[in-house]
Amino acid sequence: MRRLLLMALLAVSGGALALVAAQGGGGPSGFATGTLGTPISLWTYPANDAEGVPWSWEGKDAPQPSAPPGGYPSGPVLTLQVGGGIALTIEEATVVTEPSGSLIDSTILTGGNDSALDAHTVAVIPHTPLEPLTTYTVEIRGKVEGIPFEEIWSFTTRREGCDLLAQDCGAGKGCSILSTGKQCLWAGRGLVGERCEHANQCASGLMCMSGRCLPFCDSREDSMDPSVACAGRCPGGIFAVPGAEVDEPARLCVLESCIKNASVCAEGEGCYWLGGFLCAPAGTGKAGATCGLASDCSPGTSCLGHEGTFACRALCGGDGMPTCEDACGDQALLFDGDNMISFCP
Q1: Which of 4, 47, 75, 245 has the fewest CB atoms found within 10 Å of its own CB?
Q2: Would you kindly state where each structural domain of the chain is located, as residue ranges?
Q3: Global pTM exceeds 0.70
Q4: What is the pLDDT of residues 155-186, one digit of tens each?
């Protein structure tokens, strides 16, 4: 009984789905001996004792395998492949949860029941997503060139959610935050500062905010990666990620503060306070109007909370703004000390 240390990749080759395996160091996971005494390379996915393995798969590959009984998402695609194009015969393939040994309902795909697979590859797809932070064991029995083999390996799934700074969702996906919390979404192609409308229009590491792709940065003073530290990445300042927990170290960069340069905003936009001054579609709400979003308010005001109530509140004191004495007498409340901007309660 051997334990294999491999990683596998899903690739599309010649228009067909190819389950191709590769080890981090470039070699096979193990060997079987063929009829001529020649070692036969064996490859598996995931690696033995691998951690952070995705626990679900949305089936978005072409051609797509037949959906599991409950439809997608399913569990991840688990594979075994024999090198050299040698045919593989599968007798049994199981996935169990450790340490209980509970059997996971799965579909076994080979070249015999899936025309997209070749004769030297087997894929095992659990019918439903696996549990986060759980260890599973895969066991496959069969024959290679008539020689019986038994391959057993284990892996541990990734945690639920994702990390906004680490962007640990895997290839093609980005970690973003929705009303339901942090989630891995298929990433878009939008670059820093480009226009966007939806959460996943921006590339991994960016978030669509106020109509633009803004980068995340690390607000911690001891940030280990200077390339994502807020101090060096955000010339216009930073603001908290909407919907994030209080202790979330990730922030969003203000690329260029519109309060210092009004030309940053496009026609039809206004400069609003969103933890930093950012451009957003201009609204029509006058000072005192109830609001829920920045775009509810007209330029020159911003949707701010005071004593438990959010309203469009007139801004004063900053460059190009009315003096606070003229705008609201002695009632003005300072909220942006860097720019000496206050609002009228």
Answers
A1: 245
A2: 7-157, 173-253, 262-343
A3: no
A4: 999 888 888 998 988 778 899 888 767 888 88
